[in-house]
């Protein structure tokens, strides 16, 4: 009797609802995690397989330094002062990135591939490098921007040879949108896609509850907060802990400020939650200019780029939230100081 | 002789409280019990955190060494150049994970967690 | 030092010894029943033999309870072939720590604290001693902490039920003089 009651108790705590289908893969130079709920495993496997294959192909095309990629071919042509063929989807991505670049007053630009390379981030291994001051000044002074790039009739051209595309700041977000569309077309009604830390939600979980995403603590090995995502919402974070190297006691982040070419890690992290059309791309791209804008200007820039929910963690570990984000966030490890960003 | 005396009720209450305290301390504080080790996206093995051990996981660049000790886990060594996963140190709570790139090895502490995926 | 072959060794069993012996035999049988019952977790048992320890404590005194408890551990181990195995030492550790708690607890006011109290105290002593030995010797890892609540819950239930059973039996077995 007693043993039986105890067994029932243990079983009760152990069993839950049916586990959703989860697939992890390495593509896109990072880890991809796709969770599908409420679908037969065979269907989920097929849909996720198609998504991963698409991402793999996309990664090869968008690679910033691997020979054979569409981007490398375009950059080579730019350096020679020649136009290059461009696919329609890539042209669309460049047009959307250009709009964000314009709205951010150049705090974000996917045209600074040469600066990124100068800092040694175009390699699998980041050796501590300090670029030559003259070389850095020349590149910053040339102001390579997407606004120097024009697309016409399937061909792309740049008015400056210094322009080199590096879509590292938008590719994952764009890929989220493609994954979302593909899963939906395959009949999946509930999924969560995580591409290297950028996450998009499709529908709700099978039990009707919303998908919940953790936001990594910039200084700890765990989530600092969690937030529920509605269908089509996406979240992304830029942090100083992601890709960096240390030289002479200073940390250099892979986030290069287009204005001065610096890689000083000003903030610990900037998180953006985007909704509506183009949420995937926004969640990825908008976190970069906000990272450089800092707590004083972030809210104004976010609004210009059509984003309301933002969270910054400054160099001292203090959190800055927009009022709308403050209302929907659940703290797990609450920072000592939490500010509310003033509405612009 | 009465079966239950006043002191018995007090002792029972105390015992029940101890029970509740122990459940809270042992079951809600650190619920991670197993570690899933993945290689190239596929589950390589799900191991118990109750047994101290070292696991050698073969990846495209070489072996990633995963260590389990006293209910915690960490990447002890990995051939990937950036070494971020090694630098992450010990993982203790459910939901924590370390990803070794480009060797495509990851470890995750399984258990009840407050979210479905992590933005990082 | 030398004993002549003609001398005869005689063992005299006093009434108390007989009672201890028969209670121990009963405890061993119940320990075997315990071991035979299916359990959800190794180590979680009804602990029926502890009822007998309580009877001995109430009717024959603390010393008799110690005898009954330890003879039960030894006897059950011999019959099950588990002598000197980890299971035997766990059992012994449980019995010893349980007795250590019962020693002071048996001096509590009988008017206020009945068999249920003593049974609960003994049950918690039992799992306490077993878990301590397991943590120090068998599973030297904090992973064992995960199972502590299950044992505590089991001790709460079995301690209470065994205490009630002991109280009922004591009511039918009026204290006799010996």
Automatic annotation (TrEMBL), chain A:
Catalytic activity: L-threonyl-[protein] + FAD = FMN-L-threonyl-[protein] + AMP + H(+)
Pfam families per UniProt: ApbE
Enzyme Commission number(s) of this protein: 2.7.1.180
GO cellular component term of the entry, any: plasma membrane
Class of the enzyme per the UniProt entry, highest EC level: transferase
Binding site for Mg(2+): 169, 284
Molecular-function GO term, any one: transferase activity
Location in the cell: Cell inner membrane
Keywords on record: Cell inner membrane, Cell membrane, FAD, Flavoprotein, Lipoprotein, Magnesium, Membrane, Metal-binding, Transferase
Record's bilayer topology term: Lipid-anchor
PROSITE patterns with a match to the protein in the record: PROKAR_LIPOPROTEIN
Source species, domain of life: Bacteria
Cofactor: Mg(2+); Mn(2+)
Cofactor: how bound: Magnesium. Can also use manganese.
Family recorded in the similarity comment: Belongs to the ApbE family.
Task of the protein: Flavin transferase that catalyzes the transfer of the FMN moiety of FAD and its covalent binding to the hydroxyl group of a threonine residue in a target flavoprotein.
Protein's recorded name: FAD:protein FMN transferase
Native organism: Crenobacter caeni
Lineage: Bacteria, Pseudomonadati, Pseudomonadota, Betaproteobacteria, Neisseriales
From TrEMBL, chain B:
Pfam families: NusG_II
UniProt name for this protein: NusG domain II-containing protein
TrEMBL record, chain C:
Entry keywords, A to Z: Membrane, Transmembrane, Transmembrane helix
Tagged with keyword Protein biosynthesis: no
Entry-linked InterPro entries: Hpre_diP_synt_I, Hpre_diP_synth_I
Segments passing through the bilayer: 20-37, 49-70, 76-103, 115-138, 144-167
Protein name: Gx transporter family protein
């Amino acid at each position: 009797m007693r043993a039986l009651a105890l067994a029932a108790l243990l079983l009760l705590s152990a069993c839950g609802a049916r586990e959703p289908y989860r697939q992890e893969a390495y593509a896109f130079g990072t880890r991809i995690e796709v969770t599908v709920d409420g679908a037969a495993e065979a269907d989920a496997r097929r849909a996720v397989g198609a998504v991963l294959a698409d991402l793999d192909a996309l990664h090869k095309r968008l690679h910033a330094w691997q020979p054979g990629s569409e981007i490398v071919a375009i950059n080579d042509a730019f350096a020679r002062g020649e136009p290059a063929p461009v696919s329609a989807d890539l042209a669309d991505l460049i047009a959307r990135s250009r709009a964000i670049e314009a709205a951010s007053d150049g705090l974000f630009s996917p045209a600074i591939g040469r600066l990124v390379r100068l800092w040694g981030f175009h390699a699998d291994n980041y050796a501590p490098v300090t670029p030559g001051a003259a070389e850095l000044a020349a590149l910053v002074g040339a102001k390579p921007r997407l606004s120097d790039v024009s697309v016409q009739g399937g061909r792309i051209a740049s008015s400056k040879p210094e322009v080199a595309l590096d879509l590292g700041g938008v590719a994952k977000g764009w890929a989220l949108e493609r994954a979302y569309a593909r899963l939906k077309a395959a009949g999946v009604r509930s999924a969560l896609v995580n591409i290297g830390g950028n996450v998009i939600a499709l529908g709700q979980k099978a039990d009707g509850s919303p998908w919940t995403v953790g936001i990594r603590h910039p200084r700890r090995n765990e989530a600092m907060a969690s937030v529920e995502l509605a269908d089509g919402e996406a979240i992304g974070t830029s942090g100083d802990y992601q890709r960096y190297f240390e030289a002479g006691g200073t940390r250099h982040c892979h986030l290069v400020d287009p204005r001065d070419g610096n890689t000083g890690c000003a903030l610990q992290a900037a998180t953006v939650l985007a909704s509506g059309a183009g949420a995937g791309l926004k969640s990825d791209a908008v976190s970069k200019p906000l990272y450089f804008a800092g707590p004083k200007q972030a809210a104004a820039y976010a609004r210009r780029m059509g984003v309301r929910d933002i969270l910054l963690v400054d160099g001292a570990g203090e959190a800055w939230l927009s009022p709308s984000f403050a209302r929907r966030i659940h703290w797990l490890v609450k920072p000592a100081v939490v500010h509310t960003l003033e509405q612009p | 002789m009465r079966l239950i005396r006043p002191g018995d009720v007090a002792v029972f209450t105390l015992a029940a409280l101890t029970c509740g305290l122990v459940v809270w301390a042992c079951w809600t504080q650190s619920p991670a019990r197993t570690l899933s080790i993945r290689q190239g996206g596929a589950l390589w093995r799900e191991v118990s955190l109750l047994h101290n051990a070292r696991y050698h996981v073969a990846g495209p660049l070489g072996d990633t060494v995963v260590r389990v000790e006293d209910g915690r886990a960490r990447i002890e060594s990995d051939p990937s150049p950036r070494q971020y996963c090694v630098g992450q140190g010990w993982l203790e709570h459910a939901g924590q994970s370390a990803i070794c790139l480009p060797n495509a090895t990851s470890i995750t502490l399984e258990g009840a967690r407050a979210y479905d995926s992590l933005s990082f | 030092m030398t004993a002549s072959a003609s001398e005869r060794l005689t063992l005299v069993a006093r009434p108390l010894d007989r009672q201890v012996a028969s209670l121990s035999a009963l405890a061993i049988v119940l320990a075997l029943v315990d071991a035979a019952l299916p359990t959800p977790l190794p180590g979680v048992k009804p602990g029926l033999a502890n009822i007998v320890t309580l009877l001995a404590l109430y009717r024959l005194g603390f010393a008799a309870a110690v005898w009954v408890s330890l003879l039960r551990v030894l006897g059950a181990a011999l019959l099950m072939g588990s002598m000197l195995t980890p299971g035997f030492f766990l059992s012994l550790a449980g019995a010893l720590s349980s007795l250590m708690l019962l020693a002071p607890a048996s001096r509590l006011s009988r008017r206020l604290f009945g068999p249920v109290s003593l049974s609960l105290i003994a049950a918690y002593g039992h799992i306490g001693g077993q878990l301590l030995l397991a943590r120090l010797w068998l599973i030297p890892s904090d992973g064992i902490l995960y199972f502590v609540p299950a044992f505590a819950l089991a001790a709460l239930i079995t301690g209470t039920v065994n205490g009630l059973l002991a109280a009922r039996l004591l009511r039918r077995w009026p204290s006799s003089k010996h």
